[in-house]
Amino acid sequence: MMGRVPYAADGTLLTGTFQDYLRLVAAADLFRSALVTARDPEEMITALRWPAARPRMRYAFEEFSVRGGDYAIVAVACMRDQERRRVRLGFGGCGEAPQVIELSYEAEAIAQMAADAAAKIE
C-alpha cells in the first residue's frame, strides 16, 4: 500500500544504494505491477515525497480487507482541490499497477458520474 498514496498524489520516491547513489523517481514511473518496481536490484526506497497540501485541499485514504489487520484487497486514495475544482483518485488492487483518475467536478460531471455508477448497480 505504501506506493499508492504518493502515486495518487503525483508524488516522487527517492531511492538509494549503499554507495550513496541517489535517484528521484516519479511514483507513476516506479510501480510496474503489484509486486514489481522499476528500482535497480541494489536500490532501496529511502524517502517518499509528495506536493504539500494547499489550504483548500482535502485528502482521504481507505483500505478494504476481509478482516481488520489483513493486507488490503483494494485501497483508494482521494485528493480534492477546491480551488482548481479537481478530484484525483488513486486505486490499488484494482489492476496490475496502481491506477489514477483525475476529474473536474463541475456539477454536470458529478451528475454524469453518479448516473453512470447507478446504471452499473443492477
Which overall shape is indicated by the principal axes computed on the Cα atoms? globular
Largest sheet: 4 strands, antiparallel
Low-confidence stretches: none
Total tally of structural domains: 1
Strand order of the largest sheet: 6-7-8-9
The portion of residues assigned to helices is: 10-25%
Mean pLDDT: 78
Number of strands: 9
What structural category characterises the helix and strand content? alpha+beta
- Report the C-alpha radius of gyration, rounded: 17 Å
Element order, helices and strands?
A: HEEHEEEEEEEH
Q: How far apart are the termini? A: 31 Å
Strand percentage lies at 35-45%
Instruction: Note the total helix count.
Output: 3
Question: If you had to describe this structure to a student in words, what would you say it looks like?
Answer:
The chain is an alpha+beta fold and 122 residues long. The protein has one domain (4-121). It is 20% helix and 41% strand. The protein has 3 helices and 9 strands. The protein has a 4-stranded antiparallel β-sheet with strand order 6-7-8-9. The chain has a 3-stranded antiparallel β-sheet with strand order 2-1-5. Strands 3-4 form a two-stranded antiparallel sheet. The mean pLDDT is 78.
